[in-house]
Each structure stands twice: as structure tokens, then as C-alpha cells.
Amino acid sequence: MNLVSEIKTLYKMRTFTIKKCLRFIRLLIGVAIAYVLIHMLIRSTGADVKAEIFKANRFLLTISVLWFTGSIYFLVERLYILLRIQDIHLSRWEVTKVSMSSYFLNIILPGAVSGDLIKMIYLFKKTEKKKAEALLTIFWDRVIGMVGLMVVASFIIALYLPRITSLGSKYYYLQISVLTVGFGSFMGALIFFLLVFQSYRKNSFAGKLFEWGHRKIPKKIASIVDRLTTALNLFRKNSKVMFKTLSLSIFNHFWLSANLFLIGYCVGEHIMQFGDYILATQFGNLIAVFPITPGGIGLRDASSALVFQAFGSQTAKAGTIPVIMTLIILFWRLVGGFFFIITNFSESKVNEGIIVNEREDYARKLMQ
């Protein structure tokens, strides 16, 4: 019996080791793809990033670097509001630390949304009775961020539709990609609003099906489902809070577009309009969501540069601007490494509310 247990333990350790190796190999492949994409972009456009940085207006370049902190603030504030709605009372400083730690981990994990894992670990250790609510809050935070991106992308692509369709055959694949992304963004945002703001009726077919399934599953799982449903309904009931967090997400994507515009102005790009930067930013960010490279690096740059070239930007500038933006992102992610070091991930309970009405009181304060 002991021998069997040892064999099982060794097998589990072997499986765990294999998984770690596979993740590491996947990371190396992602880094290699990112490097190749950046290298090909610089080579094909003839961009001299180092020279452009030294030639750029130092004051405006510094503003461009600091401007990105506004985006970090919007993300922190959104998560802070969503956590308090669930009676998880972390301070803004704690939310900032875990958000920056998550931002740092995005460098070493494939995809632009992979850092959420550290948020889960932190909140699970900080909460005792609200793990399900914490999990849903992280999920909801990600969903609202994506919906904000899809709303802005749908708007700007619809606005630029005549210009996109008028591009020559040289940009045929870009046209198809942008139109596909735009249609997908519109449908995704539409489905979100239909699911969230529709009224829940117990006598509906979906309601009866849910109640039947609730009776059939084990009590422990049913309890978790109840808590998740309560948390979800709480978000749905507080429509003004939902509107505020969604507005933060939408404004954040315009803010990032302004960041890219500021970089373009620094390096002397005066052909493109601000709307062109908005389109390039949303298209690049949507492509970067695919978990191919760490933090979407390389994918975002190549996609944005292609939009710049299609809209008449100088080839060298088109390759320089997205790369400088990536360097700024990497800088703040490395700053996130400092927050990761100073953040205490040991188990320490936060102030968890008990009375549900307290959530409504906080929601009312946000509405004022």
C-alpha cells in the first residue's frame, strides 16, 4: 500500500514537472515570436528606434512615460469599486499593489490577460468567506475591461468604415482583419448588454432550467453557485455602478490612444489624425488579447504599425511609434515587479462586510 502511494506521489510530481516544463517552453516560444515580430517590424520599416528616442522632445517624451500612469489609475479604481460592491474592503494602496504585481506578471506569462492569476491568489488569501465573490469580481473586472475595449473599437471602426473600405488591394488583409474585429467587438458588446440588463424571471424557461439543475447538484456546489449568482445579480442591480466602471474602461482606452498620439508627436509624426491613433490602438489591443506572446508584445506593435502605414504615416515612423509605446509598457511592468516584491501574499484577512444592505449603501454613495 505504501509502495502504491509512493508511486502515485512520484507520478503526480512527474506530471507537475512536465506541466512546468511545457509552460516554460510555451513562454520561450512566446518570447521568440515577440522578438521575431519586433525585429521584422523594425527591419521592414527601417525604423531607428534608438535614434528617434534621442531626437525626440525630452519633455514630451517624459510626459508620454508619465501619461501611462493614468491608465494604471483607471484599472485600479475599477477593481477597487467592484471589490467594495462585494464587501471586500481592500484599501486603494492594496489594490494598487496587487494590480501592479499582476501587471508585472504579464511579462512572463503568455497573453494580455494572464496576470489575473496573481489577483486570485492574493484575494483568496485575504478573504475567508468570500472566495466565490472575489473570483467573480476578478472575472467581472476583466469582462468590463474587454467590453470597454469592444465598445470603443466598434465605435471607431464604424466611424472609419468608409475610409477602411476605400483602402487599396495592398491592404486587403488589413481590411478583412479590421472589419472582422469590428464585427466581433460589436456582437460581443451587444451580447454583454443583453445578458446583463435583461430582467431575470423565475417563470421563464431559463429560470426553470436553472432551478432544476440547482436541485440536482451537490449541496456544496449549489452553495457556491448561489453565492456566485448573488454576486452577479448584485452587479446587475447596481446599473449605475456598472455604468461607472464601464465608463472608466472606455475612458482608459481613449487615454491609451492619447498616449500613442503623444508619442507620435514626440517623434515628429504630423500626418496622422487623433482618430487614426484611436483605431490603431484598439485594433492592436484586440489582436494582443490572443495568448501568443507575453503581454501581447509584438502582436500589438505589428498590428498598430500596419494601420499607421495604411493611413499614410511615414514608414519609419510607423515602425517606431508602437515600439516606443511597448518600451513604456515594459518600463511600468518592471515597476510592477517592485510592487510584486513588497506585496505580502501571506494569509491576512481583510474587513469583510456581513450585511448585504451595506453594499447597497456603498452603491448609493457611488451614484451620488
Give a description of the structure:
The structure is a single chain. Helix content is 79%, strand content 1%. The protein has 15 helices and 2 strands. The protein has helices at 2-45, 49-55, 58-85, 92-105, 116-126, 131-159, 161-165, 172-197, 205-216, 219-237, 239-266, 274-288, 299-310, 315-342, 356-367; strands at 88-89, 351-352. The protein has a two-stranded antiparallel ribbon with strand order 1-2. Helix 1 packs antiparallel against helix 14. It is globular, with a radius of gyration of 23 Å. The relative contact order is 0.16. Residues 10-14 and 351-368 have low confidence and may be disordered.
Instruction: Flag low-confidence runs.
Output: 10-14, 351-368
Total number of β-strand segments? 2
The percent of residues in helical segments reads over 70%
Number of helical elements: 15
How large a portion of the residues is in β-strands, by DSSP E? under 5%
* SSE series: HHHEHHHHHHHHHHHEH
Tell me the Rg in angstroms.
Answer: 23 Å
Q: Report strand order across the widest sheet.
A: 1-2
Taking the sheet with the most strands, its summary is: 2 strands, antiparallel
The overall average pLDDT, rounded, is: 79
Overall spatial form: globular
* Helix/strand structural class: mainly alpha
Distance between the termini: 65 Å
